[in-house]
Amino acid sequence: MKKKIQKQRALAVQRYFAGESPESICASLGKTKPWLYKWVARRTPDNPTWFENLSRRPLSSPCRTPTEIERIVEMVRLSLYNKGLFCGNQAIQWEMIDMEVQPIPSLSTIGRILRRRELTHRRTGRYIPKGKKYPELPGSLPNQTHQVDLVGPCYLTGPIRFYSLNAVDTAINRCGIEPMPSKAAQSVLDAIYALWLRMGIPENLQVDNELAFYGSPTHPRGMGPLIRLCLHYGVHLWFIPSSEPWRNGLVEKFNDHYQQKFLDKVAMSSMSQLR
Questions:
Q1: Which residues lie across from 164 on neighbouring strands?
Q2: What distance in Å separates the CA atoms of residue 220 and residue 205, rounded to the nearest whole number?
Q3: What does each C-alpha distance from 46 to 37, 43, 50 come to in angstroms?
Q4: Phi, psi angles (nearest 5°) of residue 169
Q5: For position 222, what pLDDT does the model report?
Q6: What's the helix, strand, coil split of the chain in %, to 5?
Q7: Inter-axis angle of helices 2-17 and 22-29, to 10 degrees?
Q8: Are 145 and 203 in contact (CB under 8 A)?
Q9: What element of type H or E holds 35?
Q10: CB-count burial class (<10 Å; 0-12, 13-18, 19+) for 88
Q11: CA dist list (Å): 213 to 76, 185, 270
Q12: Residue 179 burial class via C-beta count within 10 angstroms: exposed 0-12, middle 13-18, buried 19 and up
C-alpha cells in the first residue's frame, strides 16, 4: 500500500511536468490541487526519495528528561541489581530521593528510561560456588538452627518503604516475619528478639554478610550489636561465605514466596495492615 501511494505521487508529478493540466491529473487520481502542488514543490533532482513521507518528529523536545538524569537512573538501577536488591521503578526513585537528585523523575518516566536503555532484564542463571569450606549446621530438632535474612527495601501502596526480617527453622520449616521501618542496628535487634519470643531461641543462628548483622565495615574485628546479643543468650552466630546465598537456601526460597505470593498480591497501605 505504501509503495502504491509513492508511485502515485511520482506519476502525478511526472504528468504535471509533461504538460498535462492539474485539473485532469487531480480528477483522474481523486486528489485536490493543493495535494498535487505539495508534491510538485517537494520534487528535487538531487533527492531520489522526495516522494516519501517526511518524519513528523519535533525538532526539539523541551519536556524530555535530561541526559544526566537518565544516566543517574541507569547507574542506580545497575547498583541495586549488582547488590541483589529490589531494582524496580519505585526502588530507583527512593534511592534517587536519598541521593537528593533534582529533578526526581516519575515512576512512569523511570520505566521508559529503563526500556530505552534495555535495563528491564532479571537476574538468571546459577550462582557459582567460591570453593570456601562451610560447616553443615544441624537441623534435626526444633530450634537447633534458624536461618535469618533481611529483605528490602520493600514497598506498600503509598508508597511506604520498609524492611522485613525473615526467619526459618531448618528442622520443622516454621517461619517468622518481622517488618521493620529501617535496617538500623536497633531495629534488627528488636526484630530478632520479637522472632525469638514467637519461635524460641535457637542454638545456631545463620545469617549472611549484611552490614546490619556483623557490625561496622570500619571496625571489622569489633562485635556488632547482634553478635553481642547472641553471646548474651548463648546462641552460636554463623555468617555464610560472601556472595553464596544458596547457603541460606531455606530462607532465600521463603523470601521468594513472601514476595510473590503475599506482598505482590495483597494490597496494603500502612505498616499496621502489614503487621
A1: 151, 179
A2: 19
A3: 19, 9, 9
A4: -80, 120
A5: 73
A6: 45, 15, 45
A7: 160
A8: yes
A9: helix 33-42
A10: middle
A11: 24, 8, 26
A12: middle
C-beta neighbour count of 252 within 10 angstroms: 17
Residue in the structure block whose three cell numbers are 514476595: 259
Among candidate residues 159, 65, 155, the one with its CA nearest the CA of residue 110: 65
- CA atoms of 236 and 233, how far apart (whole Å): 9
Taking alpha carbons only, the member of 234, 213, 235, 239 closest to residue 135 is 239
Q: Which residues of the chain have pLDDT under 50?
A: none
Q: Which residue is listed with cell 546462641?
A: 235
> What is the separation, in whole angstroms, between the first and last Cα of the chain?
61
pTM for this one? 0.54
Query: Which residue, 172, 171, 148, 152, is CA-closest to 229?
Result: 148
Supply the pLDDT for residue 152. 78
C-alpha grid cell for residue 110?
A: 523511570
Looking only at the bridges linking them, the beta strands covering 236-239 and 204-207 are: parallel
| Interval 187-243: pLDDT, tens | 888 888 899 998 888 989 888 877 778 776 666 677 788 888 888 889 898 888 776
- Distance from C-alpha of 180 to C-alpha of 184, rounded to nearest angstrom: 9
Cell of residue 163, nine digits: 524492611
Residue 160: φ, ψ to 5°: -120, 125
Q: How many helices and strands (H and E) does the chain possess?
A: 11, 5
How many CB atoms within 10 Å of residue 147? 28
Of the candidates 185, 193, 187, 143, the one whose C-alpha atom is nearest the C-alpha of residue 164 is 187
- C-alpha cell of residue 187: 531495629
